[in-house]
Amino acid sequence: MSAPETPKKFDLGKFITESQIYKSIFRHGYTTSDRDRALSVMTNVFFHLHPVKVRKSGARFGFTWCAGGLSFFVFLTLVVSGILLMFYYRPTVEHAYNDIMALREHVPFGIMRELHRWGAHAMIITVWLHMFRVFMTGSYKPPREFNWVIGVILLVLTMLLSFTGYLLPWDQLAMWAVTVGSNMARATPFLGHEGPGAALLAIGDIQLVHSGSDVRFALLGGRFVGAGTLLRFYILHCVAIPTAVVVLMSVHFWRIRKDGGISGPL
Amino acid sequence: MTMIKDAVNAFCSPVIIFTASMVCFYLFVRFPRQATSMAVSLPLLGLALAGFAFGLTDDHFRKIITTPDNVPIVGMLFIFLYFTWYAVRKGVINDQRMERGESTIEQTETNEKVLVFPYLIFIEFVMALAYAIVLVVWSIFLKAPLEEPANPTISPNPSKAPWYFLGLQELLVYFDPWIAGVLLPTFIIIGLCAIPYIDRDTDGSGYFSFKKRRAVISTYLFGFWILWVLLIVIGTFMRGPNWNFFGPFEKWDIHKTVPLLNINLSEIIFIKWLGIGLPKLWIVRELPGILLTLGYFMVPPAILAKTKLKSAYQKLGPVRYAVLMMLLLVMVSVPIKMYLRWAFNLKYIVAIPEFFFNI
Q1: Is the pLDDT of residue A146 over 60?
Q2: Nearest CA to A135 among B216, B81, B122, B153?
Q3: How distant is the Cα of A136 from the closest Cα of chain B, in angstroms?
Q4: Nearest CB to B139: which of A118, A145, A148?
Q5: Residue of A nearest to B161 (CA)
Q6: Residue A253 C-alpha from the chain's centroid
Q7: Which string of b and e fits B104-120 if b means at least 16 CB within 10 Å?
Q8: Partner residue opposite A141 with nearest CB, options B80, B104, B202
Q9: A65 closest CA partner among A128, A147, A146
Q10: B193 vs chain A: nearest CA distance in angstroms?
């Protein structure tokens, strides 16, 4: 007599993981051999930002604080929530404020603006924290000098992203914060109309740098924070600065690998 | 209760807060081992939390702290206090290991490699998940601020820049916009970029340490904590209408008046000391200030290169030494000018309004 046959049970997990669709997406199953773990990094376009192996300290939270990786993740969440916000928002003086109002009042589960705004604050903090960690572990030292410089530029761009986004709600808080911030620009030496040396840039009686031609005018698209500023800051916030950030981030990540991976003692 | 609050308000002023912070900072970097020990840091944490909890009982304090855009600053303070403590403590532990002739914690791990998947990906995933949860909870419970529609004819009092620029706005009290808003930010960016080109010693790279990097770390922490974070805290929480200073429990009274008695260096010299009145020609009038400023940037580097910093000068060479000195002197000039204001009501060292050139 043969042993009683166990009734064949339908295994949903197996059905999915053995289907052609699943296999076409995930080349490798979750196996635990070193070879397969290495392959799961190498065959995944997102994972393969990493090397296959890192120093043990590089995979320890106590050493990296995960601050750089977190900054990147926060940036991604800001891209997603920002794109969703762009569906609702028009950067014109007559619509901007009402569109923001509508985001709160009419859009279901309207916390998208909160996710974006608090995410922006969080990114400033995580980027500062990342820099702080890199400094305290001496990780900026040769051969990583230039990557530190790129990091400093990314830090500045992060704050400029946040600053340009600050204007977009077009409420009193936004307008006056940007007015206060951009008033500094008119005191730029030579380039601002109230800056030292600007008066020297003149041909005869013709002032080259005045309130209609200085660096503040170029930033605001006008003599005051107005319709031109709103459009300019919107383009800077949604297109120009993010593009620069993405390019520099690519270099930043690539250089980590090229400069010897996450830092460790020599 | 009110007595304590009144006492705190009366005691608080920019000079007191700034000086007290500098003293704490000095003790911290001078005695890092003791400062990061549990016996000292835990009671201090308790004290800070108790003070914070006490502050929350006050309506005004609570209102300022819970203003939606100010909440991240409070979070940042606690995060950075913790991680400063953590990094220095790790450095101290590694210092002690090296003194005993052992290798640092990171050194023992440097030749050991782990697979990124799953060990690193796992940490990243957990952090991303934790952040996502915190962000969603934060967004549900705290509404993003939205005030009246923008109106160019009504300016709020006080008008404040976004919080991460408030340290610079606070400096407007002591410097003209071209310095506080343009020159100093430029120097901060250049100075940060210059760090790896000045501090090139690869010993001390890739692990937490303190002792052998004391000067470098102290400078960085001073710039970050005192000149950046502390000024943000003062600018955000303690500057009210007309940018007047208010204690932590003091109502922001729009009618508070503060006498403005600031005078220029030229007035001190030509009117107070010499009693001959201001010279008409600006170059004569400002000559003492110009000489003082030039001397400040020329004399100390020259003397230090021959004396205290002789070894540093030889190690760095003239160009790197000059850049380092320039950056350090600009950095130190910020607290110097602040103390000159507090001590002598000094407005400008060099004042040439003819060219918008005031230092």
Answers
A1: yes
A2: B216
A3: 6
A4: A118
A5: A177
A6: 13
A7: bbbbebbeebbbbbbbb
A8: B202
A9: A128
A10: 5
- For an interface test with B, which of A92, A137, A220 has the most B Cβ atoms less than 10 Å from its Cβ? A137
pTM recorded for the entire structure: 0.93
Residue B248 CB contacts under 8 Å (≥ 6 apart), including other chains: B8, B9, B12, B55, B58, B61, B64, B237, B238
Contact A64, A58 (CB under 8 A): yes
A16 interfaces chain B, CB cutoff of 8 Å: no
B141 at the A interface (CB within 8 A)?
no
Q: Looking at the DSSP assignment, which residues form a beta bridge with residue B239?
A: B245
Distances (CA, A) of B162 to A111, A226, B42, B169: 21, 18, 33, 10
CB contact A226 to B (< 8 Å): yes
What's the gap in Å between the CA of B70 and the closest CA on chain A? 10
Q: Among 1.20.810.10, 1.10.10.60, 3.30.710.10, 3.20.10.10, what is the CATH number of A64-258?
A: 1.20.810.10
Q: How far off is chain A from B51, nearest CA to CA, in Å?
A: 24
Sequence spans of domains, chain B: 1-104+164-171+207-252, 262-359
Q: What is the pLDDT of residues B279-315, one digit of tens each?
A: 888 899 999 999 999 999 999 999 999 999 999 999 9
Record the tokens describing residue B126, joined without a space: 């957990």
| CA A177/CA A172 separation, integer angstroms | 8
Q: How far apart are CA B335 and CA B337, in angstroms?
A: 5
Interval B229-263: pLDDT, tens: 999 999 999 999 999 999 999 999 988 888 878 89
Which CA distances in Å does B234 have to B21, B44, B227? Answer: 12, 21, 11
Task: Find residues 306-325 of chain B whose CB sits inside 8 Å of chain A.
Answer: none
Q: Is the per-residue pLDDT at A7 higher than 80?
A: no
Q: Given CA atoms B216, B221, B226, B227 in this order, what sign does their dihedral have?
A: positive
A196 touches B357 (CB < 8 A): yes
Q: Show residues of chain B in contact with A104, CB under 8 Å.
A: 143, 146
Residues 199-218 (A) with a CB less than 8 A from some CB of B: 199-200
- B47's tokens: 């004290």
Count other Cβ atoms within 10 Å, centred on residue B177.
Answer: 23
